[in-house]
Design brief:
The complex is a heterodimer of chains A (165) and B (493). Chain A is mainly β. Chain A is 6% helix and 61% strand. Chain A is built from one helix and 16 strands. Chain B is built from 17 helices and 23 strands. The chains are: A mainly beta (165), B alpha+beta (493).
């Protein structure tokens, strides 16, 4: 299984040794850990887990939604995105040709039209959120294939805004 | 005079906080909510809460007519405006006065007066209180002001119509003064289409220090010490403390004198805060402005004095005299407040609205949390992304700092990105510990990419996957990937 931390994908593997011990490999690093306790609540969307590694006890609270794992472990917070192994390539392709909104808000300005040629970093559209303007710029030289939103439209995080060729 | 019911014309954490005091005083609470807030905690907890409908801020929380109508229709004797929104809108206070609804705050005239930044500075100047001098005008006006010592170096030159740091420069002395000013005017014209420039005394590493004051309708006026709010990002306060760890006792006395004299001059009533910039090199104060309302960071003052500022506000509004005299106000220990925001510090603090999945507050001694949420709910993109304020008290500043760090490490908010890790790292810096701070601190503070425990975080994730947690079905969207169909079913190993 693969998850992503910020832009890096992380591959892992695990093997159960006995009722308490596991061998876990993360990107080629090996860990032997002892599972102390685990408890899940809230319809299995949240839980806590206590494990030991290298003589240190780790306590983590984990929440899971459709796209992410949220973890608070020993006072530090992490968010991992779920990624499917085979489709990782597709996702990279998608990232480059489909522009998804990084936040939710309202589209206040659209500065391009279909068939228009844009250069890398050209301003494509502006989204307003929490009284701030957020500029969406072209990630590469491209041609606008399609625009999926209108000025004044309210949009959600990850909603598709434009498609580039 | 009695208040049966008060309308809280606000939302989020401050509406909840005001509600608690009113209930303890035996006063019923009514509130307002917009469609975005229909599942909010403040709507849940207030005795009554009225629908402002689905509209923008002007149509909802800033809609004076609608709010007054709700108050009248539901027999509210008083309105508490909270902070932000309509709290410093003199027309709102005026309307309340017209409709004979008690406005919890000073008079509309006072709000109007202190809302005028130029007039308020003139009043301060008249009283001999130093003010951050500034002039808007052309080159001749400015050179005149410098020659007459109205403006003194170093100076900050800004484009009047500008912003974002463009067209700003610092002049240390008068060499090439005319050329520099003309160049600035030209730049202002090029960038913003308006060559008017604004020149102000420049303070290199200022601290933001403010005084809490309180006055009844009978001329009794006291202060509740000072706060320092130097940790700011883009002029938004992030961390505040009471008292200021920077001032000597003599400097405090001077500061309180400025604040009290100013408040007396305008015959101020109810609760307010007078803000200053403090220049460390010269140990000078400069009056900035007065806020004629309760401040976001008021809990720090409450923690060191034991006084409920909202309660005092209501009692003053009820025409009671202040319950305490100045010499009865004591301060004890030190309090530090951190503001927890739904934002992404690693992505230029982009707001991170979304649905909160898990919310667990750290309940430890000497920690207070004023929160807008208690159960999982949505954080909207239409409002300030403030989730909560967390305030720590300690016998000393260091104790309060350690306590706050520990509490933040035990504060679990899942579902949105938060600035909790950023706050923890900031509080752990040597500079913060030693109080080597200024309002420029956040510009230079680099939040490092946190990879300690990254592998351990993954291990915890991996172990839970093996414990037969059933994950909720992923909604199929064109650009999201269905992991679970690929991997297959879970089973106990």
């Amino acid at each position: 299984m693969i998850v992503a931390y910020k832009k890096d994908k992380i591959q892992w593997d695990f093997k159960k040794i006995d009722s308490e011990h596991y061998n876990i490999t993360i990107n080629d690093k090996q860990y032997t850990v002892k599972l102390n306790r685990f408890y899940s609540f809230n319809d299995s969307k949240t839980g806590y887990i206590i494990f030991e590694w290298n003589n240190q006890v780790y306590k983590a609270i984990i929440s899971i939604d459709d796209s992410y794992f949220y973890i608070t472990i020993n006072g530090k917070n992490f968010i991992f995105k779920k990624v499917q192994e085979e489709s990782y390539k597709t996702e990279i392709e998608l990232e480059v040709s489909e522009i998804l909104s990084p936040l939710s808000g309202t589209v206040t300005k659209i500065l391009v039209e279909p068939k228009q040629e844009v250069k890398k970093n050209d301003l494509l559209l502006v989204i307003e959120s929490m009284k701030m303007e957020n500029q969406i710029r072209a990630p590469k030289n491209a041609i606008i294939e399609n625009i999926f939103v209108k000025e004044g439209q309210k949009i959600e995080t990850n909603q598709i805004l434009l498609k580039l060729i | 005079m009695k208040i049966n019911k008060t309308l809280i014309a606000n939302r989020g954490e401050i509406a909840v906080r005001i509600h608690h005091t009113l209930k303890k005083m035996g006063i019923k609470t009514a509130g307002i909510f917009s469609k975005e807030d229909q599942d909010s905690y403040h709507r849940f907890i207030l005795d009554e809460c009225y629908d402002l409908g689905d509209g923008n801020l002007l149509e909802t929380y800033l809609n004076i007519e609608k709010i007054i109508e709700i108050a009248k229709k539901n027999h509210c004797d008083a309105i508490h405006p909270g902070y932000g929104f309509l709290s410093e809108n003199y027309r709102f206070a005026e309307k309340c006065e017209e409709e004979k609804i008690l406005f919890v705050g000073p008079s509309s005239n006072t709000i109007k007066l202190m809302g005028d930044k130029i007039r308020s500075k003139n009043i301060a100047k008249k009283l001999g209180i130093p003010v951050l001098e500034n002039i808007t005008g052309n080159t001749d006006d400015i050179i005149n002001a410098i020659e007459n010592k109205v403006l003194n170096f170093p100076l900050l030159v800004k484009a009047s119509a500008g912003g974002g740091g463009k067209g700003m420069k610092i002049l240390q002395n008068s060499s090439n003064l005319r050329e520099e000013l003309v160049a600035s005017q030209r730049e202002a014209k090029n960038y913003f289409g308006d060559e008017t420039i604004f020149v102000e005394k420049y303070i290199e590493n200022p601290r933001h220090i403010e005084v809490q004051i309180m006055a009844d309708n009978f001329g009794n006026l006291i202060h509740l010490f000072e706060r320092e709010c130097s940790i700011q990002r883009r002029h938004q306060k992030i961390i505040e403390e009471a008292p200021s760890p920077t001032l000597s006792q003599e400097e405090r006395i001077k500061l309180f004198d400025y604040a009290i004299r100013l408040a007396k001059e305008i015959e101020y009533t109810n609760v307010g805060t007078i803000e200053f910039l403090f220049e460390e090199q010269t140990r000078n104060f400069y009056f900035l402005e007065m806020n004629t309302r309760i401040q976001v960071e008021h809990p720090t003052t409450e923690m060191i004095t034991g006084i409920d500022i909202v309660k005092e506000q209501i009692q003053i509004a009820l025409n009671q005299s202040l319950s305490l005299k100045q010499n009865q106000i004591q301060k004890n220990g030190h309090a530090i407040e951190a503001r927890v925001y739904a934002e992404d510090p690693e992505n230029d603090f982009l707001p991170s609205p979304g649905k909160i999945l898990t919310y667990i507050e750290p309940t430890i001694p000497n920690i207070r949390i004023d929160s807008s949420i208690k159960f999982p709910q949505k954080i909207s993109s239409n409002f300030d992304p403030l989730i909560s304020k967390i305030i720590s008290w300690g016998k000393t500043r260091e104790e309060a700092r350690i306590n706050l760090i520990y509490a933040l490490e035990n504060y679990v908010i899942h579902g949105v990105k938060t600035n909790i890790d950023y706050l923890i790292e900031l509080l752990k810096t040597e500079d913060f510990k030693k109080n080597h701070l200024s309002t420029n601190f956040c510009k230079h503070f680099r939040f490092s990419d946190n990879i300690i425990f990254l592998d351990q975080a993954l291990i915890s994730l991996i172990l839970t996957q093996n414990q037969n947690i059933n994950l909720t079905q992923i909604n199929h969207k064109k650009y999201e990937i269905d992991v679970w169909n690929h991997i297959g079913r879970w089973s106990n190993v």
